[in-house]
Amino acid sequence: MKVAKFGGTSLASADQIKKVCNIIVKDNDRKLIVVSAPGKRNKDDIKVTDLLISLAEKHLEDGNSEKEFSRVIKRFSDIIHSLGLGGETLSAIMDDLNKKLSLDASDPGKFTDSLKAAGEDNCARLVADYLNKLGKEAHYINPGEAGMILSKEFGNAAVLPESYEKLAKLRDRPGISVFPGFFGYSADGEIVTFSRGGSDITGSILAAATCTDLYENFTDVDSVYAVNPNIVANPVPITVLTYREMRELSYAGFSIFHEEALAPVYHKGIPVAIKNTNNPGAPGTTIVMHKEVNKGPVVGIASDSGFCSINIRKYLMNREVGFGRKLLQILEDENLSYEHTPSGIDDISVILSQGQLDNEKEKRVVKKIRAELEVDEIQIEHDLALVMVVGEGARNAIGMASRAAGAFARAGVNIEMINQGSSEVSIMFGVKSGDAEKSVKCLYDEFFC
Ligand code: ASP
Fold first, then answer.
1. How many domains does the chain have?
2. Which of 34, 193, 196, 260 to mutate to test the pocket of ligand 1 (most atoms within 8 A of CB)?
3. 177 and 324, same structural domain?
4. 46 CA distance to ligand 1 centroid (A)?
5. Which tens digit of pLDDT belongs to each residue from 187-228?
6. Residue 27 maps to which CATH number?
7. Domain of 367, in residue numbers
8. Ligand 1 site, residue 36, Cβ cutoff 6 A
9. For residue 362, what is the domain's CATH number?
10. Per-residue pLDDT tens for 43-99?
11. pTM summary value
12. Which of 210, 226, 249 is the last residue of a domain?
């Protein structure tokens, strides 16, 4: 049995939905299907989820949201019409949205989540209807009835452990089950969504719950590439990756897959195949637990910007018991999460995602660290990018750091920081954000050309 998840561009129009249904019916093992909401038909288009968010916002603002309502309906009616589905399908969608708009709006997060979920929910109904029209037995599955129970954190929910046992029963359903991605229900029955792009998470949860043989994730690219194709033209495709490699690559800017989505399948060791709806015959990329490292130690190079580093110096810091804990406690009290903490005997840096800090918070943190830890020096370095050289063999291959450092030197990039110790599968370099692209290019040339 396979769980197949289709992303927004795969469902953006009637033609795309036809391609999706052809893929589904070609393989009888594709029994559990997860769908996103219709996404962008072209670069300038707007995703249905974004249209629904605008609808919720306008309704909350002044209750006058007819224009936003019609834009959502137009997207669905175009699809329904071109698929030759009956008028009752569209009426059901209109009724659903009207019902959601009439709900209590005193909690904006709850109100918005209920509307946001309508993109996936109605798309799943459409796909099931169309499969039935093609003569296949298919059923829409309501996530609440099936047991997708989530924490009550609107817009950023997490699955609750008790869901898995309930969702396992989906295996025994007759025909093809079409399950809407991106949302579930809280224990008290409210609709709650994952963070954006969360249909990947739904697919992964269902794959883990049903112990499927393969989790197929259909998107709009042929494979994962060794480097961002917007930075290097025609980069090398990656055919096999380990979960850990994928995790490091997606952490540092590889946006093919939702960052949290791999956890459920990873824990069960279920392989993931990333495939292209527009070119299903292409080999794609498979993510597995273990692989043979035979094609060189590096599989990919990624970078992400928007980081800052709090650099601290204190004479005899290494002798001071509890220094690190107190420092991290200050960050915790300010609700700040950190990425890395490279350190020396009398120095420590804490690297954070810059978006978490505004001017006020930054001043407060510096003041607290100065006062509570009596440091000799503290300064915050802004606009850093993290560049990762990723590969199962990278850390243990002799000369890797030297090759990377040589490439940086030839490209005239100053390395602000290196972190090689803690990850088994990557070497991380901190550079100025303005040097990020140059860094990725020079490393790609070094390791792949
Ligand atoms: N439709 C949702 C979004 O745009 C979820 C998803 O597509 O995975 O974020």
1. 2
2. 196
3. no
4. 12
5. 999 999 999 999 999 999 999 999 999 999 999 999 999 999
6. 3.40.1160.10
7. 300-448
8. yes
9. 3.30.2130.10
10. 999 999 999 999 999 999 999 999 999 999 999 999 999 999 988 899 999 999 999
11. 0.88
12. 210
Q: Are residues 308 and 201 in the same domain?
A: no
Q: Per residue, what are the HEC states of the chain?
A: CEEEEECHHHHCCHHHHHHHHHHHHHCCCEEEEEECCCCCCCCCCCCHHHHHHHHHHHHHHHCCCHHHHHHHHHHHHHHHHHHCCCHHHHHHHHHHHHHHHCCCCCCHHHHHHHHHHHHHHHHHHHHHHHHHHCCCCEEECCHHHHCCEECCCCCCCCECCCHHHHHHHHHHCCCEEEEECCEEECCCCCEEECCCCCHHHHHHHHHHHCCCCEEEEEECCCCEECCCCCCCCCCCEECEEEHHHHHHHHHCCCCCCCHHHHHHHHHHCCCEEEEECCCCCCCCEEEECCCCCCCCCCCEEEEEEEEEEEEEECCCHHHCCCHHHHHHHHHHHCCCCEEECCECCCEEEEEEEHHHCCHHHHHHHHHHHHHHHCCCEEEEEEEEEEEEEECCCCCCCCCHHHHHHHHHHHHCCCCCEEECCCCCCEEEEEEEHHHHHHHHHHHHHHHHC
The CA 224 to ligand 1 mean position distance, Å, reads 19
